[in-house]
Each structure stands twice: as structure tokens, then as C-alpha cells.
Amino acid sequence: MASIRFGVVGTGKIADFTARAINQADSASLSSVASRRHTRAKEFACEHGIPNVHPDWRSLVEAEDSDAIYVASPTTSREEICFAALANHKHLLCEKPFLNTASVDKIAARAQSEGLAFMDATHFTHHPRTARIIQWEKKYLGPVNRIRSAFFASMMDRNNIRFDSHKEPTGAIGDIGWYNMRAIVEYMRPTGAIKAISGAIKRDSQTGTIISGAGLIEFASGQTSTFEFGYDSGVWQMDLDILGESGLIQLDDFVLDWRDSAAFYNPEYTPEFVVRRGLASPDKFEHQQVPIEQSQAVQMIEDFCRLLSPNNEVGRIQAIERARATQSLIDQYCLAVGVAV
To answer: What is the spatial distance between Cα 25 and Cα 72, in angstroms, rounded to a whole number?
Structure first.
């Protein structure tokens, strides 16, 4: 497969990390970049060996020097950029969250009508451990009835874009809570509509930004999920419990694995998950290691490039369904806690 040329819109921290992943992927290369600050775009290009620097995102998506666009802009400007990229026949890898589910639907419908790929940039979905856990669920856990998750990151820098409600209107809900919701989508795959949803949020006293929250979702199937998330913690916590009828699977790094991710680099560590069954005491817990050859971010890029094959329509539909299901849970939680979407 020929190398897929990526144009990058945005030059923040996550764009920097994803650009590195694109450079490391066998199927991809960086071709162009644009940013709100042209000087920063030129610096970014030098850092990552990008040959083309465009004066703005419109010029980038209209140029013929890319096959796909990675959109790492603020949430409120994302839809416009996505539509422009699709209008110029560019495949889309897009940061989350989206404005709302209706926005996801509009972007997805346009991508499908143009025969283009559209995928959100959620790394852990593509980790080989995720597929292994799903296999273990089916073989050993039986039906998954409950998901408990906690994702906290120490990120109370009020100069960060996360604290600008004009650009990131749902604050920590869309930014951090996205992963709690994605865990529900990936590992529980609930059946039926939401029967009940409740929660609570906390706002920053200085900026009014939503900085943390907690919630409970009950589905018509009887499946439930409890979750917590936020910026206001002095520690990174990424705990996930998957409870089935016959056991429990646990992770303490379900978002960004300890080995090689956007926040951590411990190359000697092998990602794992822990299986508990019956009355097993800690000495009987089963530690299932999942060796990886490349980071989950690089695997995400490789998986996205495979979506570009015209024969991978099933994969494209699954990518859209994941994005829509996750955003839908975000929207319904927002409504439950009184946040407009």
C-alpha cells in the first residue's frame, strides 16, 4: 500500500504526539501542516520534517499535497474543517469530542456519500490489548453486566485551551469523560436504549469550566456503568473494571498504557490486564500480558490507513458507529447534568 499523505490541522500537544505516530507508521507520512499561528506551523514542520506549511487550514485542505487530514483543532471549529476536507475529497482522522451527535451524523453522512473514511482519534480502541480483552470476555466472563471506570489527569493549567469554554464547551466531559464512555462502547456493547442516567459535575471557580464529574447509566438491558473523570486530581488514574457473570477483568491504564503513550514511556513494561474469578485472592489473580511492537497511537494510524481501502466498507462503518455511540453517551450525560449540547 502506498504511503498515505497526512495534512495536519492544529499544532497543540496532541497534534505533536499524533504527528510522531504518523512518522513512525509504515503506511503514512506527513505532508503538510497549518495552524492559527503561522510561525508555530513553521516550527512544527521543522520538528517533524513536514515539507509543506500552509497559511491557514483552508489552504491546507484545498491543496493536492495530502490524501487525509488529521483535524486537531478546537471542538467548536472542527465541523467546519471536516466538511471542507471532505469537500476536497480528503479522508478524515478527527480528534474528539464533536459538537454533538448530530454533528457526527452530518460528517459521517458526507464522508460516506463521498466514499471517504472518517474515524475519531481514540488510541486505546486500537491497542491489541483491547481485542484480546474482548476475546476473553466472550470466552471467560460471559455477558458483561457492569463497567466501572475512573479517568483523572492532573491538568489544572488555566491557560490551556481546555479552560476556554468558547472553544471547548463541554470541558472535561468531552475531553476526559469521552474515554469513560468509549470504554462502555468497546467493552460492554450495551443493548437497548438508556433507561436512566444521572450524574454530577464540578466547575472551576475561576473560569467556570467543567473540570470533573461522575455518573451512572442504566440501559434497558439491565447493564449499568458508573464512572468518574476530571482534571482536578494530583495523580493520573486510569482504572477500569469489566464485570461479567463469570468474573472480572481489571486495568489500571486503560486510556494511555504505561509502556508507550502520550503521557508515559516505560519501554521495559509489557501492557497487561488482570483476570479475577470466584474467590481468587491476589496471589491467584491472572496477569495476562499483551506484548506490543508499536504504540497504540501508531497502531491507530495503521488501522486508519487500512480504512482507506475501497474494500474496507465494513471497517469504515464500524469506525463511524463507534464515534457516534460514544458521542451519543456524552450528549445524554450532558443533558442529565444540565449542560447544553
So the answer is: 18
- The verdict on pTM exceeding 0.90 is yes
Read off the C-alpha cell for 224: 449499568
CATH number at residue 97: 3.40.50.720
Helices (H), the chain: 13-24, 38-48, 57-62, 75-87, 101-114, 128-136, 172-175, 177-183, 296-307, 313-336
Range of the domain at 104: 4-123
User: Residue 68 in contact with residue 6, Cβ under 8 Å?
Assistant: yes
Residue-wise pLDDT tens digits, 146-195 = 999 999 999 999 999 999 999 999 999 999 999 999 999 999 999 889 99
Q: Are residues 162 and 91 in the same domain?
A: no
Closest by Cα among 68, 66, 73, 40 to 55: 40
Is the four-CA dihedral 40, 208, 175, 165 of positive or negative sign? negative
**CB of 145 within 8 A of CB of 136?**
no
- Helix 313-336 with 296-307: angle, nearest 10 deg: 120
- Each residue's pLDDT tens digit, 68-108: 999 999 999 999 999 999 999 999 999 999 999 999 999 99
Give the burial class of 340: count Cβ atoms within 10 A of its Cβ; 0-12 exposed, 13-18 middle, 19 or more buried.
Answer: exposed
